[in-house]
Amino acid sequence: MIDLSLTNLVFAAGLIAGATLDFLLLRTLLAPPFRIWPTPEPGSWQSLTFWGLFRGGMVAAFIVAVLDWNSAGLLDASRYLIGLPLFLVGFGITVFGYFNLGLGNTYCGADGLVRHGLYRFSRNPQYASSIARLMGLAICAWLVIPLAVLMSGAYVLMALVEEAWLEQRYGASYREYCSRAARFLDVAELAHAVNALIERKKPSRQTS
Fold first, then answer.
1. Which of 86, 94, 174, 191 qualifies as a cystine partner to 136, CB 3.0-4.6 A?
2. What is the largest CA-CA distance in the chain?
């Protein structure tokens, strides 16, 4: 007999949304000129479809995490020491990235190529942090894992399909940016920046 509990219904809806979104993004990547993302303009079928599936998949993952809390059978402390911190840090970085990128660029505008702030260390810092956020949810609930995989796949595909679109708009300047910034995370550059910040904060020694 099919279990029609709220958790399973939301989980099934999330699976459908995530799988459909991944399929459409993969088609965008492999079979142009079809394009679901970046969306042509607000109100288009592409925009309505993309945002409906994307938001539906993300909301489903969050709701399932709440309903299926700690089903992984891990120690309670693991949720608070690993899962929640990863989710919160990922969420915080994502929000901060919006301030770097701007609202227009976030929603498929062409308000200028952003290379400062978080975008110095990654061409897609919001996508990378969102994947970390999904990993945090998955640690708290086993049932989130398939949803997290599907939505993480969507973020990776979004980053890939954006590249040709961005190169078309910004040309040589975007190609130059790609040559020095990692697609998801430049660990060496980030470590160098952190080290420089620590050194700057150290009190200077005065020589007698």
1. 86
2. 83
